[in-house]
Design goal:
- It is built from 13 helices and 23 strands.
- By secondary structure, it is an alpha/beta fold.
- Strands 1, 2, 3, 4, 5, 6, 17, 18 and 21 form a 9-stranded mixed sheet that branches.
- The radius of gyration is 23 Å and the shape is globular.
- Belongs to the FAD-binding monooxygenase family.
- It comes from Nocardia rhizosphaerihabitans.
- This is FAD-containing monooxygenase EthA.
Length: about 475
């Protein structure tokens, strides 16, 4: 039996203890030290993505000099870090900056209700031993954008006939024995290109099955300049220099890919050709679309292509006809033998940790709200949504968002204001665009009705460019934020 409900009040409640939530807690303590706050985390450990995913080879697809925090230098040799290394780094940050003692682990936000009379949120939360009610003035959603309950797992024809084991990477079992097994990995995104070379070290054979090719970009796992710069400048100064260089490089590479796609393609293709040859690349790694129409996957040290060249891994490109008792039959007649099938079919996109939200009893449909600068929602008071970049390191945008948020909190305190709400100008017509309009990946398209809309006019936009974001977040006096006392 659970302990009866109790009620506790805070200035701020942060929901989620991954990269976004920990960054928000540190920024809040530094800029607004008098604010009381707590951090809710559904899981029994902090880390978010880096605690949830346990599949072999789990790693970042952004370098840790930009995925890591500007206030906590990354000092390990690897630029592309493993999931356990990232989680260890996040735990260090939480311990060093006093976030750990603010955590409420194993605690899920069920609902959030805003009262316009009380100018406060009432939160219903649950944990193993009790249900509670919290109250807060400001709510920060650091919940990411995908469901922790399960990944996107569409049924494949004939699944019930398979005689082996079938699983999704988001529910990877700790005791799965894949030594000397034949494995089919269905999918070609970041999870698949990470899994395949890792599994191929111990499996008999791993085959990546993709409907169509995606772009795969080779990067060194260890930054070639890191050791020298650390020796010359010291770890902190070297970190700042590498971070600035990589930030600029990410933005320049994205711009080059969009402005000169043929040139960018050649850079990608030449690197792949050197390892597996032009024939394999043309068949399996030459997409029909331009770079960054969908996400570009990073392969550190070309491990995927080395596994293919050495015969430990293979790629099958085409349409699945059905699952058989012993593997996967393709429409082109090929049959891929498998003891294990891994459905690396992507994420199930949700918002707000799948909690229910209302304003004075009226349910909030975030899919019909306009996004305010990619960090808040039209008509929703005292709520911020931590959403990073999808075409660069997530953290780069999160830190800009957090600085802007804390400026708003200080502005409100200085003037005795109790609520802030983004409100569109009455009668102003705005084009309805997807929340992330530059990248058309399938998982974002499937979530079109769940994520807020952006427009073709500021501030109702969600820029995925660092310089544009800096400019957009320079001022809070933009004529659409309504402050109440």
């Amino acid at each position: 039996m659970k302990t009866p409900t109790r009620e506790t009040s805070f200035d701020v409640v942060i929901v989620g203890a991954g990269i976004s939530g920990i960054a928000a807690a540190v920024q809040l303590q530094q800029d607004c030290p008098d604010k009381t706050f707590t951090v809710l985390e559904t899981r029994e450990s902090l880390g978010g993505t880096w605690d949830l995913f346990r599949y072999p080879g789990i790693r970042s697809d952004s370098d840790m000099f930009t995925l890591g925090y500007g206030f906590k230098p990354w000092t390990e040799p690897q630029a592309i870090a493993s999931g356990p290394e990232i989680k260890h780094y996040l735990q260090e940050v939480a311990d060093d900056f006093g976030v750990t003692e603010r955590l409420r682990l194993g605690t899920r936000l069920c609902s959030a209700s805003w009262s316009s009379v009380e100018k406060a949120w009432t939160l219903t939360i649950e944990s193993d031993d009790r249900d509670e009610t919290l109250r807060c003035r400001f709510l920060y959603l650091a919940t990411g954008y995908y469901s922790y309950r399960g990944g996107y797992n569409p049924p494949l024809p004939g699944e019930q006939s398979f005689g082996g084991q079938m699983l999704h990477p988001q529910q990877w079992p700790d005791d799965l024995d894949y030594n000397d097994k034949k494995i089919a990995v269905v999918g070609s995104g970041a999870t698949a290109v990470t899994l395949v070379p890792s599994l191929a070290r111990d499996a008999a054979k791993v085959t990546m099955i993709q409907r169509s090719p995606g772009y795969v970009y080779i990067e060194p796992g260890v930054d070639p300049d890191t050791a020298r710069l650390r020796e010359e400048l010291g770890p902190e100064a070297a970190f700042r220099q590498i971070r600035g260089r990589n930030l600029a490089s990410q933005q320049e590479n994205y711009a080059a890919a969009r402005q000169s796609p043929q040139v960018f393609k050649k850079l990608i293709f030449d690197a792949i050709d050197e390892i597996v040859g032009e024939e394999v690349r043309k068949q399996h790694f030459t997409p029909a679309y331009d770079p960054w129409d969908q996400r570009v996957c990073v392969v550190p040290d070309a491990d995927l292509f080395h596994a293919i060249r050495e015969g430990r891994a293979d790629v099958a490109t085409g349409v699945i006809d059905r699952i058989t008792r012993t593997g996967i039959a393709m429409q082109n007649g090929q049959h891929i033998e498998a003891d294990i099938i891994v459905k690396a079919t992507g994420l199930d996109i949700v918002l707000g940790g799948e909690a229910d939200f209302d304003i004075d009893g009226d349910p909030v449909d975030f899919g019909r709200c306009w996004t305010y600068k990619g960090l808040a929602f039209s008509g929703v008071p005292n709520l911020l949504y931590g959403f990073g970049f999808v075409n660069a390191s997530w953290t780069l945008r999160i830190e800009l968002v957090n600085e802007f948020w804390c400026r708003i909190l200080k502005h409100m305190d200085e003037r005795g204001l109790t609520s802030v709400t983004p409100v569109p100008v009455a009668g102003q017509s705005m084009a309805e665009l997807p929340y992330v309009s530059d990248v058309t990946s399938g998982y974002l398209q499937r979530a079109a009705g769940r994520l807020p809309l952006q427009s073709d006019r500021e501030p109702w936009v969600n820029p995925q460019n660092y310089a544009d974001t800096v400019r957009l977040l320079e001022s809070i006096d933009d004529g659409v934020l309504r402050f109440d006392s």
